[in-house]
Specification:
Elements: H1 24-38, E1 41-42, E2 54-61, E3 64-71, E4 76-80, E5 93-94, H2 101-105, E6 109-110, H3 113-116, H4 130-139, H5 144-148
Parallel strand pairs: 4-6
Antiparallel strand pairs: 1-2, 2-3, 3-4, 4-5
Length: 153
């Protein structure tokens, strides 16, 4: 069973202490370090704002394109098969490529497709704040990935 960490939704309540945000500069640096190791290039980082709950970057090499997501509050990285479309759920998570281990050297945990596609009903959500549980009830995500990488506002 996967334990979903507090802050996974990107929300906290009015009386809750805010969680520290992932440094988008650290994410960008990690992307550049990874890209150097595989002779790839890094596109512009699209930072999280009010929505979405994640930063996005495209890493490209000849004939290959990887879309990398970094959660706004949790130091985790995930990969999707195609760039996100504003407001659309992310349903095409893919396993991290072999070279992605370099993100771990920068302090990010790689999320596997098995974790992200896990039905939310099978995950332990006991660490989530009440404000996050309210958001879950409203938006009704079906998987851990939909919960963590969302466009909720």
């Amino acid at each position: 069973m996967i334990r979903v960490a507090r802050g996974a939704t990107g929300f906290w309540g009015q009386g809750d202490d805010p969680l520290p945000q992932v440094d988008v500069g650290a994410f960008k640096s990690a992307c550049h370090a990874v890209a150097r190791s595989i002779r790839a290039t890094v596109g512009d980082v699209t930072p999280a704002g009010v929505t979405p709950s994640f930063h996005t970057v495209l890493i490209t090499a000849p004939g290959i394109r990887w879309t990398v997501l970094s959660h706004e509050l949790l130091p985790v990285v995930a990969f999707v098969a195609s760039p996100p479309r504003a407001g659309a759920p992310l349903a095409d998570f893919i396993s991290p490529p072999a070279w992605a281990d370099a993100f771990e050297l920068s302090g990010f945990r790689l999320l596997d497709v098995g974790e992200l596609d896990m039905p939310l009903a099978s995950a332990d959500t006991s660490e989530l704040a009440e404000a996050e549980l309210e958001q879950m009830r409203y938006w009704r995500p079906s998987t851990v990935g939909e919960l963590m990488f969302n466009w909720w506002d």
